[in-house]
Amino acid sequence: MCCDLKRRFLLLYATQKGQAKAIAEEIWQEAGAHGLEADMHCMSEMDKYNLETEKDPVVIVISTTGTGDPPDTARKFVKKIQDTTLPSDHFAHLQYGLLGLGDSEYTFFCNGGKTVDRRLQELGAQHFYDTGLADDCVGLELVVDPWIDGLWLALKEAFLLQKEKEGMSSDVDAVSSSLSATPHVVHELNLSSEVQNLKLEDGGVRNSDILTQKLVDINLVTSAGDTEPSLVHSVPPVSQSALNIPALPPEYIEVQFQDTHGENPHLSSLISGGTTFEVPVTKAVQLTSEDAIKTTLLLELDIADTVFDYQPGDAFCVICPNNVDEVEELLQILGLSEKGEYFVCVKVKQGTKKKGATRPQHIPERSTLKFILTWCLELRAVPKKAFLRALVECTSDAGEKRRLQELCSRQGASDYTRFIRESNVCLLDLLHAFPSCKPSLNLLIEHLPKLQARSYSVSSSNLYQPGKLCFVFNIVEFPACPTRAVSRKGVCTGWLAELVASLLYPNKNTLDTKGGSPSTEKISIFARPNNTFHLPADPSVPFMMVGPGTGISPFIGFLQHRQKLREEHTDWEFGETWLFFGCRQQHRDYLFKQLKCFLENGTLTHLKVCFSRDSSTAEVAPPKYVQDAIRLYAKEVTRVLLKERGYFYVCGDKKHMADGVSDAVVDIISMEMAVDKLEAMKILAMLREAKRYLQDVWS
C-alpha cells in the first residue's frame, strides 16, 4: 500500500509497570504490515492528542493499579472526562476499542479500563470493537492475543464505514483490497518442526540447513524417551507445529562503557514521586518459633529525625536491591564480571525503528553497571513473550532456539503459562536452562522492568509510639523445582532478613568495636498513604477486623491508636471492637500474644482466634479458619455492620482468605436478613461502595 493510503488510528496507553505500554507497542508494530499507521501516545501526553476533535478510530490499552485505580499515567485523563459539566454527546463523534488489563485476584478487576470505558459511553462515544478484559491471574495473553488478532478486521470495517459516511466511496475499494491482501497474522514466523521454512525478521535466511539437521536429530532422540513437556522440552502437537511467533522487537538502547570514576545516583532518584527517607532499623524480633513453617519478623524503624508521617492502616514502600549473588552470577554469564564497577552511559540507539524510543526512566543516564543490575532492573521478573522472542536471536543451539520460539508462540501458549508464568521463571532460570543463550546488556535494559519498591502495611501508631514505625512480614521462600535449580528467598524479605541478622542473633555476629552493640543498618522508604483503610472518624462507631497471619499487621496499629485515644480522652464514647485472628499453630506462629493485653484493658472487646493445624479433643471442633469463626457470630456481624452502621476490615491473602470471608459475610446477610444470595451480594457491594467493607489484600 502506498504511504498516502495508509489509514491512521490513535493508539493510547496508560501503564503502571509497563505491561500496557508493551502491548500498545506490539499493536503499533503490527499496524504497519496491515497497511495502517498507529499514532501512539501515553495517555498522560494530553498535549499530543485531542479526543474532542479526533475523527479517526481510537484504540486504548489501560491497566489497573492498587485496589482498582487507573494507573498514574491516566489520572489527568480520567479526571478530565469525569467532569460532570460535560454534555452526554460530548464524544458522540468518537469510535473506540478498549483493552483493559487487570487481575481477578483483586475485587475491582480491570476497574481502570472499566472506569474509562463506562465514562466514554456516558459521553456518547461508540465502540467499533468489543472491549477486552485481560486477566493477569490466568495469563494476559489468553485475552490479549485474540483481541489483537480481531482488531485489524474491526479497524477495517470502521474505516469502510467512515469512508461511506464521508462520501468517499472511491477510496473504499483501494483500502479494502489492500487490507484484505495483508496476512491476518503479521510479522510472525511460520516454522515447521524441521525448520524448513525458517524466516528471520530481516528477511534473510541464516544457516537454515544446519538448523534443520540439528532439530531433526533432537526430535529423534527426545521423542523416544521424553513423553512429558518441560521448560526445555516440548511434545506433540507443539513440537510438530508450524509456529506463529511475535515480531522481533526493534533494539533501541545503546550502552557505552566508560571509566570507574564517579558516584552512583542517590536511591531517591529512582523514585518518580514523593520523598524518600533513609532511616535506621532499631529493632528486629522473630515472632514465630524456629520450627514454624514460615518465619515472621517484626522490624522497628526510627523516623524521629524525619518528617515522615502516617496513620494506622497506611502502607509504605521499601527500596530494595536484587540479591548480590544473583547480580554476580548474571555478570558472569554476560561475560562482564570484570566490568561491574565501570560506569556506563545509556542512550537511545541512533536510527532505531522503535517509535518514540526514550531511555527508560528507571535507568540512570550514567551509573555503574553493578548499580543498574542491583537497584534498577527486576531480575526476578517473569519474562514476557517479547523478551523470549528477542532471546531467540541470542541463542546459538538449534534445539534451544526452537524451544524458545515455541514458548513465545501462539501454539505454545499453554506451555508458556505452565513453565514460565506459573513456575515464576526468571531470566537467570532461562539462562541456566538454555546455556547457549547469550543476551547483550542492552537487551536486558530494554526488556527487564523496573525493580519495584516493596509495599508493607504499617503495624504501629505514631500516637502510641512517637517517632517509631513498625512492620511485619514473612520471609518469602521459593523452593527449588524442575524450572528453578536453586531455592531463593524473596527479593526484599530475603534482603531485610540478612540486613537485620545482627539484631536478631547478636551473639552470632561480630559486635561493633566502639559501642559493643550490633551496627545499625539503614533502609530507604517512602510513603504510600491509604485513603480509605483507616479507623472510623467517629470513635463511637463499632468495627470488626479480620486478619490471619501477617494480615493482623495494620490492626496492631489500630489497637495501639485506640488504646492511646482511650487513655487521653476518658470522656469519649468508644464503639465495640472485634478481631478475628488465625494462624497454623498456637505455639509456633501466634504472632501477637499481647493481643490479650488489649482485651484486658478494654481496647479490644472481642478476640476470636483460630488455629488451623492444631488438633482438638473438644466434642465440637473449634473453627479452623477466620471465615469459619465469622459464621459463628452471624447475628453480631449483622448487628454491627447493618444495624449499627459499623465498619468491617479484612487484611491478608486474597485468594485463600479474603474471598472466603466475603462469601461468609454474604451468607450471613442472606440468612439474617432473609434475602436471597443475589440480594445479599448487592448489600455487600453497597457496603464496599460506602467504604464500610474495606480490604487490604494481596495475592
* CATH architectural name of one domain: 3-Layer(aba) Sandwich
Q: Give the CATH level 1 class of one domain.
A: Alpha Beta
Structural class: alpha/beta
Shape: globular
Query: What's the helical proportion of residues?
Result: 25-40%
Q: How much is the average pLDDT?
A: 87
Work out the helix count. 22
**Beta strand %:** 15-25%
The assembly state of the depicted protein chains is single chain
CATH superfamily of one domain: Flavodoxin domain
CATH level 3 topology of one domain: Rossmann fold
Question: The biggest beta sheet, please?
Answer: 6 strands, parallel
Please tell me how large the radius of gyration is.
Answer: 28 Å
Which helices and strands occur, and which strands form pairs?
Elements: E1 7-14, H1 19-33, E2 36-42, E3 58-62, H2 75-81, E4 95-102, H3 111-122, E5 126-127, E6 132-135, H4 141-166, H5 172-181, H6 208-225, E7 253-257, E8 276-286, E9 296-302, E10 315-319, H7 324-334, E11 343-348, E12 366-368, H8 369-376, H9 385-392, H10 398-407, H11 413-421, H12 427-433, H13 441-447, E13 454-457, E14 468-474, E15 477-478, E16 488-489, H14 491-499, H15 501-504, E17 522-528, E18 543-546, H16 553-568, E19 577-583, H17 586-589, H18 595-600, E20 606-611, H19 626-632, H20 634-643, E21 647-653, H21 654-672, H22 677-689, E22 693-698
Parallel strand pairs: 1-2, 1-3, 3-4, 4-5, 4-6, 18-19, 18-21, 19-20, 21-22
Antiparallel strand pairs: 7-11, 8-9, 8-17, 9-14, 10-13, 10-17, 11-12, 15-16
Helix pairs in contact: 4-5, 9-10, 19-21, 20-21, 21-22
